[in-house]
Amino acid sequence: MYELTNVTKKYQQGGRTVTALDGVSLTIPDGQLVAIQGPTGGGKSTLLQMLGALDRPTDGTVELGLANLSRLGDRKLGDIRAKEIGFVFQGFNLIPTLSAQENVETALAPLGVTASERRERAAAALASVGLGDRLTHLPAELSGGQQQRVAIARALVKNPTVLLADEPTGNLDEDTRDEIMDLLEGLWRAQGLTLVVVTHDTAVAARAQRRLQIRDGVVREVA
Amino acid sequence: MVGTSSAPELEIHVYDLPAPELAGRRKQTAIVAIGMALAIALVIIVNSVSSGVRLAQANVLASVYGVGTDITVNQTPAAPGEGEDAGPQRFDFDAADGTTADGTTSVSRTRLEANRGTSTFAATDLATVGEVDNVTAAAATLSLTNTTFDGALPDRTIGPPAAGEAPPEGGPDGAGGSSFNVDSFTVLGLDPADTAVGPLSAMTLTDGRTLGSADAGANVVVLDAAYATTATLAVGETLAIAGTDFAIVGLVTSASADAATAANAYIPIDVAQALSGLAGQVSDIYVQAASSTDIAQVQADIEAALPDTTVKTQAELASSVSGSLATASDLASNLGLWLSLIVLGAAFLIAILFTISGVTRRTREFGTLKAIGWSNGRIVRQVAGESLVQGLLGGAAGIAIGLVGILLVNLVAPTLSAGATASAQAASPGGPGAGFGQAAQVQAPVDIALTAPVTVSVILLAAGLAVLGGLLAGAIGGWRASRLRPAEALRSLA
């Protein structure tokens, strides 16, 4: 469960201070599917970075389960990212020189998994997203939808408790968008994940149990 | 194994192995590896040629001073005192000298003298040197030159022709002329019982036998093989030294096939002293120190014990090697060293810059890896592992190129000429005019083919440099990558 209390995040940008998050308080129970919408520059990505233990707030607290993410050091935050949190990015962010299987294995590298187990789990994760026959393909040899599937396999191979998706369908056409959303929704149901999706796309947001709107650093519930 | 917590240091396996990662960046890998390879090849070649040059210098010295000689002692000749004979060698003939036949008088005279420009000193100094601490062996030699003057001149009993008389007859040309020959060769007297130190120690016997302790006082001679060939002499024949016939018992060459030996003829020192009238005199003492660290002390002690002598160490002798060998030595040690340092520095710089630019280009990649939980240490190891592999690829290629370069040097085997300035010197093989007015310190030019030896240490040095270059570039690149904040790394590409 996420518990955000009075979270404020300020950046220095070109000599002036930008308030990306302005006193956000928010609770996300375990297993919820949440969509976050809002205009560009409204604070969506910053909120996702707070949830993803990628950054610490300037003020306020971010708790994930028993861990206070706003107080932990870089190493501890890295451990939490490695074990608890899966990321899916708009640009897929696969490593271009590695095969699909090797890309998925990178998520297991920090967990002290043996090489053979790593290969097995990566292959199984790729099979679960429908890419069991694409293990040795490089990202450039895969379509956008397939690349995002590899990224989803990479995010889920470590069995995280949270999956954070930043515009996961932003680079995909409508058909592929629906495929990917079906896949994410299916995995969310099957694994009991907390799934947070940042999206511009109302069709994507409509699938969520709960919709949040963020504008000027302030979050409000969308009925 | 990657990812096993028991062996985290092996996680430089680069996402599993560096191979797939580096194969995907062939261009960068190739440029860094080629730069490293050229630098390492240059280091190997320069290093190898330098040791070849040093080897050549050692050969030149060994041929003149013998193997194992650390220090030589001799005496600088003093300027001739007033009334002393400072002129050139003289051969005086009385009216009754020579034999006359057919109007021609033949004369012949041989002198065995200390080399011009060398000075002899008491043989008792050898004992003094032997008593110095840390001297393990010392041997004395007497450097001599045997000069034979022979000639034919017209019968001096015939007076100048009176007016209207026929011109004189007789003499070598039958018209009253004269003809003279001068033949000289160098003779080195040495202790036949002790050949461990001194010039003979560096020589290889090619025929007959060398001198032994039983030869003391005997008229036996060992010849330099090159001189024997020139003078058409062989073992079993005799050579006249100072008018005394010596049995030729052996022939020697320099241990280094390229260099001449120290003298033309080697005889027992007691015989040399007696024939030259230099009883109890020696011209050089060869000293071996207990260890290389004792040389300075031994030199100082000998100088203190024998203040009139000149005491030189092998290192000082090395500086006396001259000619193109010395030039090559300077070239190898100065230009070669700086060139390889500069190229090595450039290669390291290229590796570092390419690694840093690679890290910058891969901001998204490292940001993503950090987002999915990679620690800074893991990322540094990743980048360092990749660089190390690039360095090793370059190192392996560099060693291969370097070995080819060394092979080429050895195939071409450029000839260097060298001279060692020394008192114990081989004069040019005898011939008319030789031996007269020789300069005090004669150069015996020696042609040495340069060989570039390959040593394990050079290969290890190259491998070490490859690892060092790879790790250096990797450490700097990895440090850059680890400083990326994941949020900013990801934001920068949004």
UniProtKB/TrEMBL annotation, chain A:
SUPFAM superfamilies: P-loop containing nucleoside triphosphate hydrolases (SSF52540). Keywords: ATP-binding, Nucleotide-binding, Transport. GO terms for molecular function: ATP binding; ATP hydrolysis activity; transmembrane transporter activity. CDD domains: ABC_MJ0796_LolCDE_FtsE. Residues 2-222 form the ABC transporter domain. One of its GO terms (cellular component) is membrane protein complex. InterPro entries: AAA+_ATPase, ABC_transporter-like_ATP-bd, ABC_transporter-like_CS, ABC_transpr_LolD-like, MacB-like_ATP-bd, P-loop_NTPase. The keyword Nucleotide-binding applies. This is ABC transporter ATP-binding protein. It comes from Cryobacterium tagatosivorans.
